[in-house]
Amino acid sequence: MQSARRRGLDLSTIPLPDADDGRIPLNAQDALWDAYCQACDDPLPGVQVGLDLEIGHLDSAGMLLVTCETLGEGLDTLVDYAAIVGDGGEFSLTNQNGAASISYRPYYLVQQNERVDAVMTSLIKLARWASGQAFRPQALELCRTDSRHRDVYAELLGVKVNFGCSGNALRFRESQLELPLIQANEPLREHLRNLADHTLEQLGHSALIQKVRRLILANPGWGKERLGLELGFSGRHLARRLSEEGISFKVLRENLLWEEARRLLNTTATIGQVSLELGFSEESAFIRAFRRWQGITPARYREQLRLSSG
C-alpha cells in the first residue's frame, strides 16, 4: 500500500504469504488494512488510498480498461475482469431510463467502510482521468451510515455523497457511457484482452467464490455442508478451497448476509420479514447477528437511515 508507506506506517511486521498469482490473499489484506487504519490519523483513510491510486498500480488489467473506446465499454470490462485485480468484491453496471450506475459489493468485513471508500474513490478518479475529465458523476451512494465527514467527502471527491444507502454505487447520466476515452487503442486493447483472458483462465479457481456467493444469496439458510453438496464436494473440502482463496466460508457468508440485511432494512420489510428472508430461525437470532456486524440493532440502524435521509 503506497499510501501507508508515504504516511510512515511500518508494514514489515505483517506477514505476507507468497501467492502463485502475485496477489495478496484477503486475510493478509485484512491485516494490512487494519494496521493502516489504526495508525492513520486521517479522518478518511480509504479516500486517501483511492486518491493515491494510479492506473499503473492495476497493471495490465488497468491498461485494458483505459484503452477501451468509451466509458461504457471500460466499465463493462471492469465488471468482467475485476477478479484479476483481486477477489475482494464484484462490480455490476446498470443503465435504464436515462440513468446509469456502477455498483460495488465487497466480500470483506475488516475495515469495510474504508476499503469501499478506496474502491469508489479510485473509480471516480480513474473514470475522470480516462475520459479527459469529461466524466461527471451525479452522486456517490454508500452503505455506511456514519456521515460525520460529509463535507470532507464532497471536497475531496467533488461529488454529492449519500449515506445509509442499500448499496455502494456511483450514479451518473446514461449518456456518459458514450464518453470517448483518451487512451483508446484497439490493437493494444485486443492484446491486453487476450492476456486478461489467459489470466482469468489461470485464476479459474476464483470462479468458486462467485458460485458460492450466488448460492448463499439464493439459499441464505444453507450451511457449508449443504452448499458444498450442491457444488459436488464436502463442506470440509469447500472450506479448504475457500481458505486457499484467502477467505473463510464463515466470513464470506456473514459478509453477504450483512450486506443483504442492510439492503432489506432500507425497504418496507419488517424486521421479522428480513430475518426470515435471510434464513434465520428466530428474529432474536437475526438481531444478535446484526448487532455483531453493525454494532447496533436493526431498529437503531433503521432510525439512522431515517435521520440521514431526512
Describe this structure in words.
It is a single chain. The chain is an alpha+beta fold and 310 residues long. The chain has 2 domains: 44-201, no CATH class; 203-309, Arc Repressor Mutant, subunit A (Orthogonal Bundle). Helices cover 55% and strands 9% of the residues. It has 15 helices and 5 strands. The chain has helices at 2-6, 26-39, 45-52, 59-66, 71-85, 112-130, 150-157, 186-202, 207-218, 224-231, 235-244, 249-265, 271-277, 283-294, 298-309; strands at 89-96, 99-106, 139-141, 160-162, 168-173. Strands 1-2-5-3-4 form a 5-stranded mixed beta sheet, with helices on both faces. Helix 3 runs parallel beside helix 6, helix 4 crosses helix 8 and helix 13 crosses helix 14 (283-294). The radius of gyration is 20 Å and the shape is globular.
Mind sketching the topology for me?
Layout lengths: L1 H5 L19 H14 L5 H8 L6 H8 L4 H15 L3 E8 L2 E8 L5 H19 L8 E3 L8 H8 L2 E3 L5 E6 L12 H17 L4 H12 L5 H8 L3 H10 L4 H17 L5 H7 L5 H12 L3 H12 L1
Parallel strand pairs: 3-4
Antiparallel strand pairs: 1-2, 2-5, 3-5
Helix pairs in contact: 3-6, 4-5, 4-8, 10-11, 13-14
Quick overview:
The protein has 15 helices and 5 strands. It has 310 residues and is of the alpha+beta class. It has 2 domains: 158 residues, no CATH class; 107 residues, Arc Repressor Mutant, subunit A, CATH 1.10.10.60.
